[in-house]
Amino acid sequence: MQLQTNIPEIQNTDLKYVLLDYFKKEVNLLLLDGNTSKGDAFEWVIAAGSMDEISVGEHGAFEALQAFHEKHKDWVFGSLSYDLKNGLERLNSENSDGIQAPALHFFLPKYLFYYKDNQLFIYHHKEQKEFPVERLFSTFSPSDIGFNSVLKPMVSKANYIENVNQIKEHIQRGDIYEMNYCQEFYAENTDLDPLNVFKSLNEASKAPFSCYFKLGTTHLISASPERFIKREGGRIFSQPIKGTRRRGLSKVEDEQLKKELLENQKERSENVMIVDLVRNDLSRIAEKDSVNVDELFGVYTFDQVHHMISTVSCTLREAIEMKDILRATFPMGSMTGAPKIRAMKLIEKFEETKRGLYSGAVGYITPDGDFDFNVVIRSIQYQSLNKYLSFMVGGAITMGSEAEKEYEECLVKAKALFEVLEGRYAEKVS
């Protein structure tokens, strides 16, 4: 990518939305938005258009991705579907799928917009003309989100509670210790303006791993608070989330809820189980004795919720490649359970929807092979071809779980999604 030099100083708070609107007809378009989170490479980055792309199935996907990156040795952006698990283990996914996203899709962009410290850097592929900078002074005028349907749950509350109790029976028998169980809310034959929905959700949540991804007729609108995995040279970092509380109505209530989250033994137990799983995954690629828990039970506040987040890191062994890292760690422990393989088998049994991009990952790979990927949660998926809208939400089920409270936690996590879609919701009666 070549750096464009004629970039004016510009104060435009809607700049990222202006750029998304300008490129909205491109087949490949991705915004990764840190929402001013500190300590990361950029505040936000937009990859627009495609000079080359790769879209592959579940088997051999990570090897194909590595070959694609080695071919270009440039910035590439894209997504990893949860169902890549089927190419890693003897697993399958036969549940319903209204979105039909590819298992893995990455692209080499025509243009790259990189924003940090109030400065915009524009890169373009050598075969592309420079970006017309006068477009940076445009305005973005959001319109109605276009949603004209009623959200329905794929599983009734009664069936959700029954499934949680059955999962606990598996835990009691020793099949698993913890399982991430998710449910889908959906709408059929609905119109949607994905960009306007993303702006509304992003402004409401301001999550540090938010993204907007347009891949042809497939749209991902995400307010993710969670990092899956990051590589910086020879170091790997993972930050699983386990433990959630709603925001309080006052500062005093907020502090009470944070204290309750930190001291809750069930939440701490869930978090430790997943931290141990991540440590085990990283040990497969790490130098001896280099796996470290940098932070345990960190409580972080977001616009919609409080979360308990831990950070695990390691130093890579020599000759470990990107494909080895992804094969060892994907799917992420926070969205599967422990033991991971047995938990994933039970996920397919109890869930009714193919996860696809949900609980997969979206991110980037740098020319040097560093990378950063989020966990796709708190996300709306929309397929404009069949006008199907979907979002999933879930939580960790352990022996200490109370089914009613787990259901309520799902609704807390989905609060911003319901509100952005104007709160339309209908309880499934069956």
Describe this structure in words.
The protein is 27% helix and 30% strand. The protein has one domain (2-420): Anthranilate synthase (4-Layer Sandwich), CATH 3.60.120. With 430 residues, it is α+β, with helices and mostly antiparallel strands. It is built from ten helices and 22 strands. It is globular, with a radius of gyration of 21 Å. Helix 2 (61-72) packs antiparallel against helix 7 (322-329) and helix 3 (157-173) packs across helix 9. The protein has helices at residues 15-22, 61-72, 157-173, 194-205, 251-263, 265-283, 322-329, 340-350, 403-413, 415-420, and strands at 2-4, 28-33, 44-48, 52-56, 76-80, 104-108, 111-116, 119-124, 152-153, 178-187, 209-215, 218-224, 227-232, 235-239, 241-246, 292-301, 305-315, 337-338, 361-365, 371-374, 379-383, 388-397. Strands 1, 2, 3, 7, 8, 9, 10, 11, 12, 18, 21 and 22 form a twelve-stranded antiparallel β-sheet that branches. Strands 4, 5, 6, 13, 14, 15, 16, 17, 19 and 20 form a ten-stranded antiparallel β-sheet that branches. The relative contact order is 0.19. The model has no long low-confidence stretch (mean pLDDT 92). The termini are far apart.
In short:
The protein has helices at 15-22, 61-72, 157-173, 194-205, 251-263, 265-283, 322-329, 340-350, 403-413, 415-420; strands at residues 2-4, 28-33, 44-48, 52-56, 76-80, 104-108, 111-116, 119-124, 152-153, 178-187, 209-215, 218-224, 227-232, 235-239, 241-246, 292-301, 305-315, 337-338, 361-365, 371-374, 379-383, 388-397. It has 430 residues and is an alpha+beta fold.
